[in-house]
Amino acid sequence: MTQTNAKSQIPAALQGAIHTKLFIDGKFVDAESGETMATLNPHDNSEIAQIALAGKADVDKAILAAQKAYPKWSRLAAMDRGRILLKLADLIEANSEQLAMLESLDTGHPIRDSRILDVPRTAVTYRYFGGMADKFQGDVVPVEAGFLNYVSREPLGVVGQVVPWNFPLMFTSWKMAPALAAGNCVVLKPAEITPLSSLRIAELMAEAGMPDGVVNILPGLGQVAGQYIAEHPEIAKIAFTGSTATGRRIVQASAGNLKKVQLELGGKGANIVFEDAFLPAAINGAAWAIFHNQGQACIAGARLVLHESIAEEFLEKFTALAKSIRLGNPLDPNTEMGPLTSQLHRDRVLSYVDIARQEGGEILSGGKAPGGDLSAGCYIEPTIVRAKSTHDRIAQEEVFGPFVTVLTFKTDEEALAIANSTEYGLGAGLWTRNLQRAHLMAREIKSGMVWINCYKRVNPGSPFGGVGQSGYGREMGFDVMREYTQAKSVWVNIDAQIVPHYPRPAK
Predict the structure, then answer these.
(1) Contact, 267 vs 398, CB < 8 A?
(2) DSSP readout, 350-395?
(3) pLDDT score for 69
(4) Span 325-329, mean pLDDT?
(5) CATH architecture group of domain 12-265+470-489
(6) Looking at the domain 270-452, which fold is it?
(7) Which of 35, 103, 185, 298 is catalytic?
(8) Is 264 an active-site residue?
(9) Which end of the chain has fewer beta carbons closer than 10 Å to its terminal beta carbon, N or C?
(10) Which residues pair with 45 in a beta bridge?
(11) Catalytic: which of 264, 381, 475, 483?
């Protein structure tokens, strides 16, 4: 059991909303081992609550519950599955303030972001897939005369899902909504350091009418519960969002039973600003690309790639904007940037400042933790670093914090080469008024998503995912429904005159 020195001040609005147990077969239950782990408020590292830690026995119980629920759930009319998801969306909106506060308390997201982004995006995702449940269709394939061939889409069965700590509320919807709409049952492991919003969603699901066993939520350690879910022979698919290193281990763990794997992994997004860009929009967009959620986003615009003719003007205004961002308690509505989600991660991000100095990089702004009232928390000032080379570690490795690496270019070809110079390929952005250039660059950048004159736009109807070391498979849209179903081809002989393969005289 993890011990901390201080208890967090829990807002009165969250009384009754903080659940500390596993959710299995429609009930909140203790872990079989009795083990717990503290979830901390990153504002001051005080303890919010002790959360049950799932072990192998708990995973087995959850899978058994899901297996029992699967036949009835998978055969339920798609419209009825959709109705439950639509009801859940309504309940999320009805409890929006509570969910926003819970997310901000546990993760460090500024409350204004939780209110206007995290919670609404979560509700709209459940609503989108609730509406899609009875609209995802199979096909009739034209084949040879006399035959009808139709292809149905069937759910996979019991699926395992692992969500990260950076957007836990939103990612539960990205994972669970399409899986449930398609007729699967779910065993989901939230990050052990940010489990609170996922457990509250489980309670709202029960209120919405979700049958027992269809959804099971198991906070636990990645190397224990997460590993076992990936290895388990009764899990038909594992969907994982997180680091590339952990993604590799997931693939290795799943190899024993050849389960489907869907991975949304790391990124090192290039955000390219051309000489003809509208600078006020590009400057604000670049700040949003890297400093939203303290840079803790796989799609963050972590590499700022500037045309040399506008670089100095851009950096002067961009640096001034970065320095003006208001750091503070995430529950304060005036806060624009909160703490990183854990002290361990804050220290990792700060280590890249030292790496930058060792590589000859220039620290243009930030590069340290603030003092004063914020010194007890996991805060880092918005950090801007000019790299010497695109081959530097700070230009290649995912930092996952409010840390942006600046590079410059002379030609479009050089900009493209820089954009494609990492092993990642998740998100990229470009700012230009040249329409032809915009489309050509979007085509040539090796990335699953490209934003033109904007950054970090997401929608449940648009596929989300990467290439290369950023993973494979897609969240969102019709693409993700294919990820959670399998095709069954059915052949019907209507009036085909099949010539015998082994002709024999009639007797």
Answers:
(1) yes
(2) HHHHHHHHHTT-EEEE--S---GGGTTTT----EEEE-S-TTSHHH
(3) 98
(4) 98
(5) 3-Layer(aba) Sandwich (3.40)
(6) Aldehyde Dehydrogenase; Chain A, domain 2 (3.40.309)
(7) 298
(8) yes
(9) C
(10) none
(11) 264
